[in-house]
Design brief:
The protein is an alpha+beta fold and 441 residues long. The protein has helices spanning 6-14, 40-46, 52-55, 104-117, 157-162, 164-176, 202-222, 273-284, 286-293, 299-303, 350-367, 386-394, 397-403, 410-427, 431-437; strands at residues 18-24, 30-36, 48-50, 67-71, 77-78, 86-95, 98-99, 120-135, 141-143, 183-186, 192-196, 200-201, 226-228, 242-250, 322-323, 331-332, 339-341. α4 (104-117) packs parallel to α11 and α6 (164-176) packs antiparallel against α7 (202-222). The longest helix has 21 residues, at 202-222. The N and C termini lie far apart (83 Å).
């Protein structure tokens, strides 16, 4: 008789009573079924079924067969700090026994496999910025901390202390999971925070971003707050990014590829030729990348801001350029170990964002692309709106190819979703229009 599955063993060791079998759709919406531990062997061997059309943006119609969420045991995560006896496991959706091409985690795994075929293992770190809000008596969104009103609240020790219970609760949770939380701070917008964890391989980091967003949402709600990753919730305040710190290791030796070491460094920022070509790939595909890493209408209120926030800076790139330890650029190179892609925001699906970035960067490596002078880029204008970004995406076979890696049609489906989103926004009549036009003539 076969022994218990690895998932069952892990669940028993953790004292788990229920497991959230979780995956996200193309928009990043977390979808799950709550599975009792008594059914853990069925979950481990068969997965758990979903009506795909009901899931959301995942490429199915009501007539299609079930999505079966197959758990990745390595991602099993006990979360008793949310509910006693609760755990979650990230899943790969399958249809009729095959990985589903529209599933973001499946797409990232394909990108990692493509990188391995080229001789590289991609690693990533992620800066998860978010706001803690509440609604006032009129229903308006305001910072959850009523005293958080300064024009320049970034790093304010008092603001961190007032949110001590929330921040330390999240920090303790991350450290109990072995993520290595190393800093928690008040960011540049009123009500805005960031909590950092150590980098890891690309898939692990994407899983952790999804897990952290879930934890932030449910743990903030327990304290009567709204945690939001909306890129630009306030016109006059800094927006929330999802900055990605990317690097490569040699697939055969495990050694870091980005440092120049003893090799020649013509640009002087400490990176290898491979790393500079990776950056050049990011810049070459920047406009198309934005459709994936800044995928909402609201994203372009952040990158397209024409005025500084109350603090004096937006901290969002406006041109696809690169530089050294300079946060005004699309790609920042802070040291010889990594590069920071700063164009992404809190609405990005981490699986798609990392996959697209790795694909763009490795295209630059494959072509041996070279960078211009520090502070420059390809000279293309940054997308002004989501629609401009989707147009660039439609014209970019490399970035589209990342989304189509498991099966054709995914990139076109994604582009269609984003166009529909833009035109739904465009057809809505706003307060701005009332103020501008109601009595103008």
């Amino acid at each position: 008789m076969a022994g218990p599955s690895e998932l069952a063993v892990r669940a028993e060791e953790a004292g788990t009573k229920f497991i959230l079998a979780l995956f996200v759709d193309l928009t990043g919406k977390p979808c799950a079924k709550l599975v009792p531990v008594e059914a853990v062997e069925q979950l481990a061997t068969e997965g758990v079924g979903f009506a795909g059309y009901a899931v959301g943006a995942i490429g199915q119609q009501p007539r299609d067969p079930d999505l079966m969420a197959i758990p990745d045991v390595a991602s099993f995560t006990p979360i008793p700090f949310v509910k006693e006896g609760l755990a979650l496991v990230h899943c790969d959706p399958h249809v009729e026994g095959k990985p589903w091409p529209y599933a973001p985690r499946v797409i990232l795994k394909a990108a990692v496999a493509a990188a391995a075929a080229a001789g590289y293992v991609p690693f990533a770190g992620a800066e998860v910025e978010y706001f803690l809000l509440r609604r006032d008596s009129s229903g308006a969104l305001v910072p959850a901390d009523a005293q958080d009103t300064a024009d320049r609240p970034c790093y304010d020790a008092r603001g961190v202390t007032r949110m001590y219970d929330h921040l330390t609760g999240i920090s303790t949770a991350m450290n109990s999971l072995g993520w290595g939380n190393y800093a928690n701070d008040h960011e540049d917008g009123n009500g805005q925070f960031e909590q950092n964890f150590e980098y890891a391989d690309a898939l692990t980091t994407a899983d952790r971003v999804v897990t952290l967003r879930y934890l932030l949402n449910v743990m903030a709600a327990e304290r009567g707050m709204i945690a939001t990753f909306m890129p630009k919730p306030f016109a006059d305040r800094t927006g929330s990014g999802l900055h990605l710190h990317l690097s490569l290791r040699d697939a055969a030796t495990g050694t870091a590829v980005f440092p120049a070491g003893e090799d020649a460094d013509p640009i002087g920022l400490g990176l290898s030729k491979t790393a500079y070509s990776f950056v050049a790939g990011l810049l070459e595909h920047a406009c198309a990348l934005q459709a994936v890493i800044a995928p909402t209408v609201n994203s372009y209120k952040r990158t397209g801001s024409s005025a500084s926030s109350a603090s004096g800076a937006t901290w969002a790139p406006t041109l696809p350029t690169y530089g050294g330890n300079d946060r005004t650029h699309y790609v920042r190179i802070p040291d010889d170990q990594r590069i920071e892609l700063r164009g992404g925001d809190g609405s990005a699906n981490p699986y798609l964002a990392i996959a697209a970035a790795v694909g763009a960067g490795l295209d630059g490596v494959a072509l041996g692309l070279a960078l211009g002078d520090v502070g420059t880029g390809p000279g293309t204008p940054f997308p002004a709106t989501l629609l401009h970004a989707v147009d660039a995406f439609d014209a970019d076979d490399v970035v589209k190819g990342v989304l189509d890696a498991v099966g054709p049609g995914v990139a076109d489906y994604f582009a269609g979703l984003k166009k529909d989103e833009f035109f739904a926004y465009h057809s809505a009549v706003s307060t701005w229009e009332h103020d501008r036009y109601l009595t103008a003539i």
